[in-house]
Design brief:
The protein is an alpha/beta fold. It contains 22 helices and twelve strands. The strands form three sheets. It has a five-stranded mixed beta sheet with strand order 2-4-5-7-6. A five-stranded parallel beta sheet has the order 9-8-10-11-12, sandwiched between helices. A hairpin with a 7-residue loop joins β6 and β7. α1 runs antiparallel to α7, α12 packs across α16 and α19 runs parallel beside α20. The longest helix has 53 residues.
């Protein structure tokens, strides 16, 4: 069966990042709420709120306040409120360091008892009333320092150069608190009750541990989170082994001690049982981790095979247009004086170039979706308008295939919040697939209807169908359900995965069903419906502009000489006066000598890149009156912002359609006239 498959847009790393962020927030919120409840014990005179486990070690009020501030700083870091993060971190660090200095110099600075609210209880393990113990003071000093580093990194846009130290600080705090927690777990009072050395309340240790874990999770681009999130064998092994061993070993030892104290067995029996359980448990954890590693390797091998098949398909599809392009060029060379043949050759070249552009656009879109860099321009649009766009896109292939095509859309408007162009691309892909894989004279249905809070769009056909095995992996990355040699319909086979990714970015779902080979197929898209019926319409930029009427002086700059020369010739045929340049330095010189109205400037240039060339042009007298148009293969929003910051007025993504160039020049004419 021909291919109806492609990429899986969701990645394990993104899922792991979401899990890490949720865990981080949960740990920080626990610390905020726990410290707040603990603090309330002092003004309300409720001892048990400061000593949850009745261990005669109370959390001091200043400790509770600093934990609350530190956990709040971690939460605010998630929302990028960097100034507040730095401020809270500085307060926490100062509080911890000032407390430690009291222990070092043997003095009392007088701030320890300020929040006791006159209470005299809860001081059994303190050197001075209200003073926190050295473990909490040290941990808070480290946590505050980490928050300051984290916030400064965010404010300065240091891209992780400073905050790479934050996980190490978090691990240090976790180590200190593990020491205290083990003391409580195994009844080692010296680990948590010596006033001048180890004194710390159990709830204090758990909350500081939680804040430290939240700090570690807040930096996913560095270890240990980098390893835990990695889609590698090491990552799979770490995700199973590290949490399991960290929980199992203390619990086994604790149960062993508990059994001995209860008299269930003697010391020797306890040791033997503990060793046996640890050995079996460790082996079981390693076995599970190794099974996960083996599965991961199998997935990689299969993905590598699918990638090889995909690359072979890509090479085949990109090579196909070259033969008619070469033939058309030869026809134009030989058919001098034969306008009909020349026009036919031109039409062939236009079709094949458009085909290659669509292939490259699909690849770029898929790359943006898988990396999370695609940006949708969502507006409130009627679903019928989106479907009309899709039908218009697919109309040539539907008509060429001579299918019976039925569209059923309710008269009552259905509105969705969507990027109309992207969503139309989804349904056009589904219609194109249906047309390709349905024999001549078949039937294709496009239906839409509201079902509760959703709009349901179904594309159904009487085509070749999909087998059960192929249905299970039809949206997978690089999946090919048949050998490449059997393909005869063209395309890269990424349309369905592209559709899936775009639908999910719109908050919807897509599924495929089929009764089997030869029994047709059905693709169902579900999208959330807007309650409001306010309609907004958009007009294509090209439709807003009239053709230019003024002859302009234009410089075209591209290091690919053929690209620069052909665009310059096209502009000359439009009636403009042009000059060309092939590197950044030459571009600046051409602008200074020619004094153009418009410059089409490539970004990736030798000697001086397009950004620096634009800045240089702007810095010269009269440079601010030149219209600079970035001409580049990089078309993301950040690329547009960077071009604007460098001084560009407009940004066009290669390959540029001639109509787009005409529309832009016409827009400049209208703007000047206004």
């Amino acid at each position: 069966m021909p291919n109806r498959s492609g990429f899986e847009p969701l990645s394990t790393s993104r899922t792991m990042q979401d899990v890490g962020r949720a865990f981080q927030l949960a740990a920080a919120v626990y610390a905020v709420l726990g410290s707040f409840v603990s603090f309330l014990g002092w003004p309300l005179d409720i001892l048990r709120l400061t000593d949850w486990f009745n261990d005669v070690v109370s959390i001091q009020p200043n400790t509770a306040v600093l934990i609350m501030l530190s956990a709040t700083g971690v939460v605010l870091a998630q929302f990028r409120v960097w100034r507040a993060v730095v401020t809270l971190g500085a307060l926490v660090a100062i509080g911890g360091i000032a407390t430690l200095l009291q222990y070092v110099v043997g003095a009392d600075f007088g701030f320890n008892h300020q929040l006791l609210f006159g209470q005299t209880w809860g001081q059994e393990t303190t050197v001075s009333p209200g003073r926190m113990g050295p473990p909490a003071a040290t941990s808070l000093a480290l946590i505050g320092t980490a928050l300051v580093l984290f916030g400064l990194d965010g404010m300065r846009g240091a891209q992780g150069r400073i905050r790479r130290y934050v996980p190490a600080i978090g691990i240090a705090v976790c180590s200190f608190m593990t020491f205290s927690l083990f003391g409580y777990l195994f009844g080692a009072e010296e680990f948590y009750s010596i006033p001048w050395l180890t004194a710390i309340a159990l709830q204090t240790a758990t909350m500081l541990f939680a804040v430290a874990i939240a700090l570690i999770a807040s930096v996913p681009e560095h270890d240990p989170m980098l390893l835990l999130r990695a889609r590698t064998g090491a990552g799979a092994l770490a995700r199973i082994a590290i949490p399991a061993l960290a929980v199992m070993i203390p619990l086994v030892l604790w149960f062993r001690v508990l059994g001995q104290e209860a008299g269930y067995y003697d010391l020797g029996t306890g040791r033997a049982l503990g060793a046996l359980i640890l050995m079996v448990g460790t082996m079981a954890i390693l076995w599970a981790a190794l099974r996960s590693l083996r599965h991961h390797e199998q997935v990689l091998v299969e993905a590598d095979h699918r990638k090889d098949v995909f690359l072979a398909t890509l090479a085949h599809e990109l090579r196909n247009p070259l033969a008619p392009l070469r033939n058309a060029l030869e026809l134009q060379r030989r058919a001098v004086g034969d306008p009909r043949t020349i026009e036919a050759a031109r039409a062939v070249m236009e079709r094949q170039v458009n085909h290659m552009v669509r292939l490259v656009d699909d690849l770029l879109d898929m790359s943006r979706i898988t990396s999370g860099r695609i940006e949708l321009q969502k507006t409130r649009v009627p679903l019928a308008h989106v479907l009309d766009l899709a039908v218009e896109i697919s109309k040539p292939i539907l008509e060429a295939s001579k299918h019976e095509f039925t569209v059923l859309v309710p008269q009552q408007p259905i509105y969705v919040q969507a990027d109309a162009t992207r969503l139309a691309q989804v349904f056009a892909n589904l219609l194109n697939n249906a047309a390709k894989y349905t024999g001549p004279g078949g039937h294709i249905w496009l239906t839409a209807e509201p079902r509760g809070p959703e709009a349901v769009v179904v594309v159904r056909d009487t085509g070749i169908g999909i087998t059960t095995n192929d249905l299970a992996r039809i949206f997978e990355l690089f999946a090919q359900v048949t050998p490449v040699i059997e393909r005869s319909k063209g395309g890269l086979g990424i349309g369905l995965s592209l559709a899936k990714g775009l639908v999910e970015l719109h908050g919807g779902t897509i599924e495929a069903t089929s009764a089997g080979a030869g029994k047709g197929s059905e693709f169902t898209v579900r999208l959330p419906v807007l309650v409001s019926l306010t309609d907004t319409t958009e007009t294509r930029a090209e439709e807003k502009f009239a053709r230019p009427i003024t002859k302009r002086r234009i410089v075209v700059v591209d290091d690919l000489a053929d690209a620069a020369d052909t665009l310059a010739i096209m502009l000359q045929l439009m009636g403009h006066d042009t000059r060309t340049a092939y590197d950044g330095v030459e571009a600046v010189q051409a602008v200074l000598a020619f004094k153009p109205d418009v410059v089409f400037l490539d970004i990736g240039l030798p000697k001086m890149d397009g950004y620096d060339a634009a800045r240089s042009i702007r810095s010269h007298p009269g440079g601010n009156y030149v219209t600079l148009v970035a001409l580049t293969g990089w078309g993301q929003e950040q690329d547009r912002r960077r071009a604007a910051d460098a001084g560009f007025d407009h940004h066009l993504t290669k390959p540029v359609d001639p109509q787009t160039v005409e529309a832009l020049l016409a827009h400049l004419e209208q703007t000047r006239a206004a």
